[in-house]
Structure formats: C-alpha cells, structure tokens
Amino acid sequence: MGRTAGTGRGSRRTFTVAAMATLTGLVTTGEPGLVTEGEPGLGSAGDSAAVPRSGGTREPGRPRTAAELRGMWLSTVLNRDWPSRAGLSVARQRAELLAHLDRAVDRRLNAVFFQVRPTADAFWPSSYEPWSQYLTGVQGRDPGWDPLGTAVREAHARGLELHAWFNPYRVANHSDPGRLVATHPARKHPHWVVPYGGRLYYNPGLPEVRSFVQDAMLDAVRSYAIDAVHWDDYFYPYPAEGQVFDDDAAYRTHGAGFADRAAWRRDNIDRLVRETATRIPLIRPGTRFGISPFGVWRNHATDPRGSDTRAAVQTYDDLYADTRKWVRERWIDYIVPQVYWNLGFAAADYARLVPWWAAVSQGTGVKLYIGEALYKAGDPAQPAAWQDPAELSRHLTFAREHTQVRGHVFFSAKEVDGDRVGAMARVVSDHYQRPARPAR
C-alpha cells in the first residue's frame, strides 16, 4: 500500500528550477481538527477495542535525540483561538498573541502554525485582500497594528518557527456576497465565486482565480521572514448533502482533454500546489511549503494503494486533492496528515494510518509530521479512548516506531493552553522532557 516509488524526480528545489520557464511563459469552520466522528469524513463506526496494529513491519524507532517538529495550530477563524473575540484593543490582542507563543515555549514546542488568511482576508496589511473581520469585527478595518509581523518577530525571538497558515479558496463562512466589504475581490469579480453549503468559495477551476489566490498568499512571503507557507485541508469543499458545486461554466471552458470532471478538478488543485511550490523559493529562498490534509487519501477498498480505512470522505475523490501524489512527486517540503482518530478506532485507526503515511513518504525527502487531535481529549462527545489523558501520549509512542515520522502538530492553541484533562501535560512529561531542538 503506497510502498513503491512514484514518478517524482529529484527534490522540490530541483522541480522549481525545471518549472520556472513554464510558469514565466505563462468543514466545519475550516480548521484542522474540526472534522470528527459523525461529521464529514467518517461513517458512524464506533470505538473499537482492538489492540493497535501497525499494518506493516515497523522499522527501528526514531532516536529521541533526533530533531523533531513540535507544533501547534493557532486558529483565528471565528476567533477560535485568537483573538478571543473581535474588537479587542491593540494592547489586549497583542498580549493574548504573546501569551500563546509563551505557552508554546512552556510546552516545549518549537513551531506555531498561525492562521493569517482564514477567509480571503488578511492578518497583515495585504496588497490584495481586506483586513480580517476577526480582528476588529468589521472586514477591511485597519486594526492599528501588524499581527503577522509581530508574530514572526516574537516567535523567532522565542526560538519558535512561524508557519503562516492560509486557506486558498474559502471566501466567507456565509453565502451572502453583499456582506463582504465593497472593495473585496469577490465583490469586484462575482463570477469567481461559488456559493456552496452555506459558504462562499473561489472557483478553483478558473485560471485567473488560481493566479490571484497565489498572489494574495505570496504577498506575505515577500513581506515577512516566515518559515513556511502552510495550507490546511480545504481545497474543493467537503461534500454538502444534496448540493452541487456549480462549476459547469468553468468546466465547459477549461475542461477539454480530461477524462471527466473529477480529473479536471484534481488537475486544478495539482496546478495550484505545483505553481505555488515553484514560486515560493523564487520570492524567499529557504521558505518551506507544507500541507495538512484530511488523514485519508483513499480507502483500500477504493484503491489498493489506499489505507486500511473505511472513511466516508476520501481526499482524492471528494476534495479532489491527490495528497499522496504531492508527496511522491516531491512538490511539497512537508505533509501533516490530520490523523485525528484514536488507536483502535474502527473506521480510521491511528495505528493503520501512521504506517501508511510513513510508507508514502519513505524515500521522498518530504518530511512527515502527524496532526494530533488534542481538541478531542476529554471532550464528552468523543469516544471513550479520548477520555483517557494518556491517549495522545500513546500516539507519540506508537509514531516513534516509524522513522519517517519527524514530529507532531496539535490542534489547537486553546487546548494547548487549557488542556482539559491533562493530555498535553502528559505528552510533555512523557516525550518533551527537554527543550525542543530546531525542527529542521
């Protein structure tokens, strides 16, 4: 399952040089972690008492002295983690942001994944998009300071990497374009926008959209010494029952030569990934590119190369994101699959998925980090395994047996701080006894 080499040739940097000439001639709230059992992605399969299984032969464990990434997502959409509410004073916003960075250091982490473009908006003075409403409560209103610039400077002062987290295509968590600020690009170019599932999205099938969203994200790369460009799991939106994503006109115009619409959609996302991978090092050499997809590429029953899972959503088929290909082709520097299920969970067992992703990344040079569902720990709505404070610590113990796993990222900052049942404290006690070394 995914153990043979793909068609990738050389590193992403090699790819960048090769592609330059071509390019120059030319669910939920949307956060990692908020697709849970009973929500899009998985069926209704219950908790399993099965003993964890690796799904393959384990290799000697990664030495505890090896450099590893220890990260947390810092979510801003809907004010999930920060700021605690819109409209706070500059001093209060800044103090809350620095408190999150200090907590990351206290927990012996070494990276923060800061969401800076949650809904086609910006947490920096962007040349392309309006200030985020999650700062002031009013989209487009200047908050009076530069959150991304401050985050980069203060993170680096604390020895933390700052990965700038962008959502490429989501425009709004509502379906009314009239609620967007008048100067919003989606208002100026209404034909770019598709309403779906009660939200607004840019249409990935339009080349002008693909160019614009890259420009909007890469504006931050030009302006700040961020350590990485980071995307989450939203490409084409998660399926909404009974609704159709209306890209008929774009498909008629741009879909010639593809076997079907699904193949065309996957190519649209492939192009976004490949083109962004090419452009980042041209703007700021050394800046990495990483993606955090939903944890299941395809089920084995759908594709023999897929994982031993029974997920109701598969990124390849439903989000049109060929995440396995991006690793095998070495278009990205790292991948953080959201393996947000407990050891032994019947539909998507952590002990099946980690070895599958390890096999996919083996020999590619693409770093593999595992996305961890800290937000589930102690949540009474979650299966019994998540009521045990030791569940996450067992994840890290299991993952350490696979040398390809080079670290973990926890969703999210609010839980790193609040730590409802002490699951994060247990991880620190069991695995992070010493301060973090640099992740690279």
List the topology elements.
Blueprint: H1 12-25, E1 69-74, H2 90-106, E2 111-117, H3 133-136, H4 147-157, E3 161-166, E4 170-172, H5 185-188, E5 193-196, E6 199-202, H6 207-223, E7 228-231, H7 248-254, H8 261-283, E8 288-291, H9 315-319, H10 323-328, E9 334-335, H11 350-361, E10 367-372, H12 391-399, E11 405-410, H13 413-418, H14 423-431
β-sheet strand percentage: 5-15%
Overall geometry comes to: globular
What is the number of beta strands?
A: 11
| Tally of separate helices | 14
**Helix-strand makeup class:** alpha/beta
Give a short account of the largest sheet. Answer: 8 strands, parallel, barrel
Radius of gyration equals 21 Å
Q: Which strand order does the major sheet show?
A: 1-2-3-7-8-9-10-11
* H and E order: HEHEHHEEHEEHEHHEHHEHEHEHH
Which regions contain 5 or more consecutive residues with pLDDT less than 50? 1-30, 33-40, 43-59
Helix proportion of residues, in percent?
Answer: 25-40%
Mean pLDDT: 89
Distance between the amino and carboxyl termini = 28 Å
